[in-house]
Specification:
There is one protein chain. Helix content is 53%, strand content 17%. It is an alpha/beta fold. The strands form two sheets. The protein has a five-stranded parallel β-sheet. A hairpin with a 2-residue loop joins β5 and β6.
């Protein structure tokens, strides 16, 4: 399973984005299920603009099963808040925090992101160990 961050979603559905072609190529090469969080979708729809063609295409992509949406539990939301505190010296926004919390819950380390700097800093907790994110 691969979690998808905001950047690739915006790039995939806005042809004017610099990373549009490379994100399309990466997505077409992915053979594992993809999933995103509700807060990542919120951020992507905000950036794409609600009535844009990109926003419409993203809604269709999700509705047609192109990507699953993970809904956080209360426990997972509190973990996202904890992560934001942990990374306060390298500010983590709530969307990124939900991606890492979802990765912990879903048992994956793979994240499709354009935000290499931040995600290279974040760690995914498994028991008492911390593991780096596998950036796609």
């Amino acid at each position: 399973m691969i979690l998808v961050d905001t950047g690739p979603l915006v790039a995939l559905f806005d042809p004017k984005e610099e990373e549009h072609a490379s994100c399309r190529q990466t997505l077409s090469a992915i053979r594992l299920p993809t999933v995103t969080t509700l807060l990542v979708l919120t951020e992507a729809f905000h950036i794409l603009a609600p009535q844009s063609r990109g926003s419409e295409a993203l809604r269709t992509f999700i509705a047609d099963g192109g990507m699953a949406v993970h809904f956080s539990s209360q426990e997972e939301t509190l973990r996202a808040f904890e992560l934001m505190d942990t990374y306060r010296d390298h500010p983590m926004d709530l969307a990124d925090a939900t991606v890492i919390a979802a990765a912990e819950t879903l048992g994956t380390r793979r994240v499709f992101t354009l935000d290499h700097n931040d995600f290279a800093t974040y760690r995914i907790k498994r028991g008492h160990r911390l593991y780096p994110v596998e950036i796609i």
